[in-house]
Amino acid sequence: MKVVIPLAGKGTRLRPHTHVTPKPLLKVADKPVMSYILDDLRTLGVHEAVVITGHLKEKVERYMAEEYPDFHAVYVEQPVQNGTAGAVLLAEPHADEELLIIFVDTLFDADLSIVKSLPDDVAGVIWAKEVDDYQRFGVIVTDEDGNMRRIIEKPSEPISRLANIGLYYIRDWKLLFEGIHHVMDSPPGASGEYYLTDAFQYMVDQGAKIRTIAIEGWYDAGKPDTLLETNRHVLSTSRGRSPQPARGVTIHEPVHVADGVTLEESEIGPNVTLSAGTTVRGSRLRDCIVGEQATLEGCDLHDSLVGSRVAARGVKGRVDLGDDSVVEVGG
After folding, report:
1. Fewer beta carbons under 10 A from the terminal one: N or C of the chain?
2. Integer-rounded Cα radius of gyration of the chain
3. Hey, which residues does 219 pair with through a beta bridge?
4. Residues 124/179, Cβ–Cβ less than 8 Å
5. What's the burial of 274, exposed, middle or buried (CB within 10 Å: 0-12/13-18/19+)?
6. Does the pLDDT value for residue 315 go beyond 80?
7. Confidence of residue 44 (pLDDT cuts 50, 70, 90)
8. Whole-angstrom Cα distance, residue 44 to residue 114?
9. What average pLDDT does this structure show over 175-181?
10. What pLDDT, in 10s, does the model give residues 264-296?
11. How many other β-carbons are positioned within 10 Å of the β-carbon of residue 304?
């Protein structure tokens, strides 16, 4: 099995952080979002990847080479941002077996090994999450056997609450690319883009069975507030790491404090991640993600993203500071 990972987007909703860091390499619980998915693929035994790159592609390639040398990755640049169908189409020259397609701006609790035991007549799987706010998503309408009939974008009526989460398995990869070519030869969607879900619709219209499987956990990492929510979830599932007790330091679990962090006279947590080399003095932090080698002095922050090598003094409230920012209040 081979995995296709489209990650060419610029991550505009996560600026200023994505000016210098690709969105998949932003961290929750001190680990890049992309790594959670790659670790799951390792467990599944998948080591062949086609990575569709774009913005800051060199950083993605370097990270993969250094941290996942066991993955045989082919990198294909997407020069034009023309939608999800256009992105996956770039993988066609390298597709010669079953495919997993994973969009890496979310984390999920899904048993990917289920693909090994599917009936022979199933052409693919779409994983979905049942949601209440169905109007925000593309939702999947299924038949009585749980197979996809169609996907409807942002419906006004509750025709389905199964939200498409961007995780797919395709056994009939030849029919998939036939469908993608059909989509690319048709007029684009309302946004001017070509959608991968329209290729799935083509497959279904040709008689293919695409099974819909609901999952329990789905955690967005595509904008600041949801990145913080995902950090809270990951920390709460025992992936945090507490520091050694220190005089004048109060810790409210869950937190993740990396090696080499200096804490003095501070209150940390809950739901705080501090990366390596960071120094926090005389500060209070809750619901924050702080990058490497940052220095926070006399700060009282909540619901904040603080980049690497930031220097902040006397800052209070909620902030969103990119790498190498300097902020001093009352100095």
Report:
1. C
2. 21
3. 107
4. no
5. buried
6. yes
7. confident
8. 10
9. 96
10. 999 998 999 999 999 999 999 999 999 999 999
11. 23
CATH fold of 2-220, please? Spore Coat Polysaccharide Biosynthesis Protein SpsA; Chain A (3.90.550)
Options 2.160.10.10, 1.10.8.60, 1.10.20.10, 1.20.950.20; CATH for 240-328 is: 2.160.10.10
Contact (Cβ atoms closer than 8 angstroms) between residue 124 and residue 208: yes
Which among 224, 264, 282 is positioned nearest to 105, based on CA atoms? 224
Dihedral pair phi/psi, residue 52, rounded to 5°: -90, 110
Distance CA 183, CA 200 (A): 10
